[in-house]
Design goal:
nine-stranded mixed sheet, Rossmann fold, 2 domains, Dihydrodipicolinate Reductase, domain 2, about 325 residues, alpha/beta, globular
């Protein structure tokens, strides 16, 4: 299987390295606006480099592409790749708007390719185990959840600072946690959010309450932390007969800087650390995509429908931030 990687930043590099570890998979070409940047990554994974993203989309020798470009570019490149007959792994968020998601989904329905959205929490071993335990009913009905994602302002690309390109942290960062809550509880009914802007329209400090009818989820997401604050994420799920709590804290400001994590389940009379499958979440995600492509099987994780709902919820939260109102979905 021959893969093209669009984008050589943090996520492009992460995808490329994970693909390069897969048996019988070749990372054939890597693109970046900076040819030097593309060349460094290409040399690392044994690929060639290009400064032309369209060269990858139009290359008939490639079976699949991984698109890790800025979010506002997702529709044009994903649609073109699907029309060119390629399988597509598209980095989250799916798009800036629901309309963007729908346009890509229309192109997917007209194609023969696999489309998967890289919502990596659905492959993160501790998140997977926690949701598995909750969905098993072992702790009774889930009642509420609290998710957090705390980071210093991203410093590796200027486009994050433009809400027209990134959607701000309410979409780009917190979409992880909106998707996680949907994973646990299903379809949201309403959302109410308050927060602060880093610049006009750039909602980078977000505190949201999501109503699921018979359950509620709360999110604390922020890129207002100082550079010295370690990247931190967590998910605590309160059920009728117990609590599951996961916490990850990096060794520095970014997720790749080591750190540690812990998942604990609390039941009446005992607390225990469940056994969790080993493995890097990004590599698990890439392996799953490759398997879907090889077996011509539509993914059940990172589906367009799941990713669209997360974008819908994130944009509803942004409307709540802007208006101060509870926003129905």
């Amino acid at each position: 299987m021959k893969i093209g990687i669009l984008g050589a930043g943090f996520m492009g590099s992460t995808h490329a390295r994970a693909f390069a570890k897969m048996p019988d998979v070749q990372v054939a070409v890597v693109s970046s606006r900076s040819l030097d940047k593309a060349s460094r990554l290409a040399q690392e994974v044994g690929a060639r480099a290009t400064a032309n993203d369209w060269e990858i989309v139009e290359d008939p020798s490639l079976d699949a592409v991984s698109i890790t470009l800025p979010t506002h570019l997702h529709p044009q490149f994903a649609i073109a790749a699907l029309k060119a007959g390629k399988h597509v792994l598209l980095e989250k968020p799916f798009g800036l708007t629901v309309a963007d998601c729908d346009a890509i989904m229309d192109a997917h329905r007209a194609s023969s390719g696999i489309l998967m959205i890289a919502h990596v929490l659905r492959f993160w071993p501790e998140y997977v185990k926690l949701v598995e335990i909750v969905h098993s009913g072992a702790l009774g009905r889930p009642l509420s959840a609290v998710a957090s994602r705390l980071s210093a302002p991203p410093g590796w690309a200027d486009w994050f600072k433009d809400p027209a390109l990134s959607g701000g942290a309410v979409l780009d960062l917190v979409v992880h946690d909106f998707d996680a809550l949907n994973w646990v509880f299903g379809s949201p009914k309403t959302v109410y959010a308050r927060g602060h802007q880093a610049a006009p329209g750039l909602w980078n400090d977000v505190h949201a309450i999501v109503d699921y009818g018979d359950a509620q989820g709360t999110i604390d997401g922020s890129e207002f932390l100082p550079a010295e604050y370690p990247f931190t994420c967590s998910l605590k799920i309160q059920c009728e007969r117990g609590v599951g709590e996961f916490l990850f804290r990096a060794g520095g400001a970014s997720i790749e800087q080591g750190g540690g994590s812990r998942l604990v389940i609390y039941e009446p009379g005992r607390a225990y650390v469940p056994e969790v499958e080993a493995g890097d979440a990004y590599e698990r995600q890439i392996a799953y995509f490759v398997d879907c492509v090889r077996s011509r099987r539509a993914p059940s994780l990172g589906t367009p429908e799941q990713a669209r709902l997360a974008v819908h919820l994130a944009n509803a939260a942004r409307r709540s931030l802007e208006t101060g109102a509870v926003v129905p979905l």
